[in-house]
Design goal:
The protein has ten helices and ten strands. The chain has helices spanning about 15-20, 25-45, 95-115, 160-175, 185-205, 265-270, 275-285, 295-305, 315-330, 330-345, and strands at about 10, 65-70, 80-85, 125-130, 140, 145, 215, 230-235, 240-245, 245-250. The protein has a six-stranded mixed sheet with strand order 1-5-6-4-2-3, covered by helices on one side. A two-stranded antiparallel sheet has the order 7-8. α7 (about 275-285) crosses α8 and α7 (about 275-285) runs antiparallel to α10. The longest helix has 23 residues, at about 25-45. The two termini are about 30 Å apart.
Length: about 350
């Protein structure tokens, strides 16, 4: 299988583009630096194949193997090793937050879906903190997690949101399973699946039911002067922020508002709002813990082997219906899935 390893950052290019146009140096300098850096890494990703990670021999453990590195504000990875799995908590808050979120991600996939780490073969979870100078992003590079500290004004420390870390690591799960191409609707599905499981990891770690959850991605990341609650809202796409510096959240919730653009790989971070909202509607209709029935349908669809790498929203929707039927028959679960896709305007027949 060819590996469509994506270089995905949690702050989408359209947000950084808007910031880069600011007349205030404190705003445009970190944004331009981050954009240039991300464009370089994105190009690098396209021209190099991901190095194959050797699968461990024997039975994968039910315990994560986490190693944290400090990049020391440089852009060389991984940096200096500062924390191993069995070490006591660090004096560095970013190290502890990253360690905990890697663990929360490992635990949801193991406990809810029986998956052993990102590759289902016990892949060690490595992460580097304090990456770059005022770097306004976090990313999964196909092998490890990387976190910037933010610029302290627009964005804070990127280790603060467990859902952001879960989102990025889920790109790894997709890489090892359906391997969805990172362009157009399949790219928006790739993004949406990361948002779905990022939210579920947060809900699982907080013990929240679907109606207790905020359904936000990146709550806590935005700086104190920004008018907004998060980077994205699955409950109400398009409402996460409305700010003079960031612009307005452009995500649609329904197919009638689908955005056609050549930017951002065909709007992968924008149109993901549509399948995001569909998942929220399924989880809300079913109630209880969203990682159980709704999450199981999405996880089984992602990992079941039938999802094409270039799947569009409609083919993904049809597969979720088929998966729901095979797991739960024609009960409430299948009805909820059919209703959700109908509400967002994606056909399932």
């Amino acid at each position: 299988m060819e590996n469509n390893t994506v270089f995905c950052t949690i702050i989408p290019p359209h947000v950084l583009d808007k910031l880069a146009q600011s007349e205030d140096a404190a705003t445009y300098e970190p944004a331009r630096r981050t954009l240039e850096h991300d464009a370089f890494l994105r190009t690098q990703r396209r021209i190099t194949t991901v190095r194959g990670v050797a699968a461990p021999t024997g039975t994968p453990s039910d315990k994560p193997v986490r190693t944290l590195y400090d990049a020391g504000h440089q852009e060389t990875l991984p940096g200096n090793k500062v924390h191993s799995e069995t070490d006591k908590p660090s004096k560095d808050k970013s190290v502890n937050q990253a360690h905990d979120a890697l663990g929360a991600t490992f635990e949801l996939y193991l406990k809810a879906y029986g998956r052993h780490s990102i590759d289902d073969a016990g892949l060690p979870l490595n992460a580097s903190v304090h990456y770059g100078e005022k770097y306004d992003n976090a990313f999964w590079n196909g092998e490890q997690m990387v976190f910037g500290d933010g610029d302290g004004n627009l964005f804070g420390d990127f280790t603060v949101s467990v859902d952001v870390i879960g989102h990025e690591l889920t790109h790894g799960v997709t890489q090892y399973t359906a391997n969805l191409e990172y362009f157009g609707q399949s790219g928006a599905l790739n993004e949406s699946i990361s948002d779905v499981f990022g939210c579920l990891i947060k809900q699982y770690s907080l013990g929240q039911t679907a109606d207790q959850a905020d359904w936000l991605i990146g709550a806590g990341l935005l700086g104190p002067t920004i008018h907004g609650t998060a980077l994205r809202s699955m409950k109400a796409p398009g409402t996460a922020y409305d700010d003079p510096q960031l612009g307005k959240d452009p995500q649609p919730a329904v197919m009638a508002d689908f955005v056609r653009t050549s930017r951002d790989n065909g709007g992968v971070h924008i149109n993901s709002g549509i399948p995001n909202h569909a998942f929220y509607l399924v989880a809300s209709a079913l109630g209880g813990n969203a990682w159980e029935r709704a999450g199981k349908i999405w996880y089984s669809t992602l990992t079941g082997g039938e999802l094409a790498t270039d799947a569009d929203f409609a083919s993904f929707a049809r597969l979720t219906v088929k998966t729901a039927r095979s797991l739960y028959g024609d009960g409430n679960e299948t009805k909820a899935v059919l209703s959700a896709w109908s509400q967002v305007g994606v056909p399932t027949s």
